[in-house]
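Structure in, sequence out. Go:
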């Protein structure tokens, strides 16, 4: 029978079910990879941060919002207090879900704003409580990301090649800080190859033992 997590046994993670924190700049392919993972990783629970944040802010404002409208407005609508509230929901979700299934957390700390960029990260204390088994950053060349956004904006602001590359670097630096705080590797995976190849690489992270 499957058991819940046992985090620090002999320096290795021996969780029956594993948690992968998946991040990346806009148009890196997080949502596409997350949807496709269910075909390779089972059972699987997903915490899609943008969807949960949209639901939370909609309830707080008593107004029906969409992820597209939230992306377009971003800091004009979403404050740091909203992020902290959803972070707490995430911790509760993962603590319960990892006892019965693998978990992927689809999230990002860096947003493009009218004035530039905003980084609203987890506190390192909260990230330690989240205790993922692997951290994965999806990235893609700036021209690929810009092309994806131009073809399907979905509320995402249009960006230049430089802005896209800078956003990717910021997102990777935040994820690397998380990894350093926990002493675990951070996997940076190029998402420009065919989606099946990318999903296979991410799925492997549910099998890799990580030092903690």
């Amino acid at each position: 029978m499957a058991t819940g997590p046992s985090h620090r046994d002999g320096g290795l993670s021996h969780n029956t079910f594993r948690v992968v924190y998946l991040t990346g700049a806009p148009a890196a392919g997080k949502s596409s990879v997350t949807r496709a993972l269910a075909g390779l990783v089972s059972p699987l629970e997903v915490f899609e941060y943008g969807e949960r944040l949209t639901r939370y802010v909609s309830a707080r404002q008593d107004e029906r919002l969409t992820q597209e409208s939230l992306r377009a407005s971003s800091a004009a609508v979403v404050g740091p207090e909203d992020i902290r509230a959803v972070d707490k929901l995430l911790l509760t979700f993962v603590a319960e879900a990892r006892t019965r299934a693998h978990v992927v957390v689809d999230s990002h700390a860096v947003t493009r704003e009218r004035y530039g960029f905003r980084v609203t990260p987890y506190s390192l204390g909260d990230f330690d409580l989240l205790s993922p088994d692997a951290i994965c950053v999806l990235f893609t060349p700036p021209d690929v990301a810009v092309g994806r956004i131009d073809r399907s904006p979905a509320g995402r602001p249009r960006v230049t090649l430089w802005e896209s590359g800078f956003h990717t670097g910021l997102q990777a630096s935040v994820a690397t800080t998380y990894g350093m705080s926990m002493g675990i590797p951070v996997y940076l995976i190029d998402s420009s190859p065919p989606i099946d190849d990318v999903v296979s690489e991410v799925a492997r992270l549910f099998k890799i033992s990580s030092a903690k």
